[in-house]
Amino acid sequence: MKQFRESEDHVLADRLVNYSDAMVTLAFILSSGLGLAIADPDTLDTIAGAAAGIVVGNALLGVLFSSLLVTLRQWELELRAGVVLSEKYKLYTRRINIARHVVIWLSITQTVAVMLSIRV
């Protein structure tokens, strides 16, 4: 029975990692879509009027995604607490988690920078 419980925890921890990756993908796609809308002359006039709101909204979205990533990471580590993890595993999962945050914030920063440069 204990082994079954450990495998459930392992599967759920893996699922949380998948959710984290999906969230990063969603953040990147949303920011890229906004960037493409900014670059399109047909939609630029419509978006330019709401630039400040879009910049704030995009930044808040980044905060939301980062907060969720931190929460998912904590839950994953709690689920893996009963398992002995190698130092290499801990190092690489920490680096991957940092890379997720970097991808989110680089895509949001790039979109905000483009929006602010057009606004000027």
Question: Can you describe what's shown?
Answer:
With 120 residues, the chain is mainly alpha-helical. It has one domain (2-119). The chain has four helices and no strands. The termini are far apart. The model has no long low-confidence stretch (mean pLDDT 85).
Instruction: List the quaternary state of the chains.
Output: single chain
Number of helices: 4
Distance between the termini: 64 Å
Rg measurement, Å: 19 Å
| Number of strand elements | 0
**Structural domain tally:** 1
The percent of residues in helical segments reads: over 70%
What composes the largest sheet? none
Order of helices and strands: HHHH
Q: Would you identify the regions where 5 or more consecutive residues have pLDDT less than 50?
A: none
Mean pLDDT: 85
Question: Which structural class is indicated by helix and strand composition?
Answer: mainly alpha
Q: What's the shape?
A: elongated
How large is the share of residues in beta strands?
under 5%
List the SSEs and their pairings:
Layout: H1 2-39, H2 41-48, H3 51-79, H4 87-119
Features:
120 residues; mainly alpha; 4 helices; 90% helix; elongated
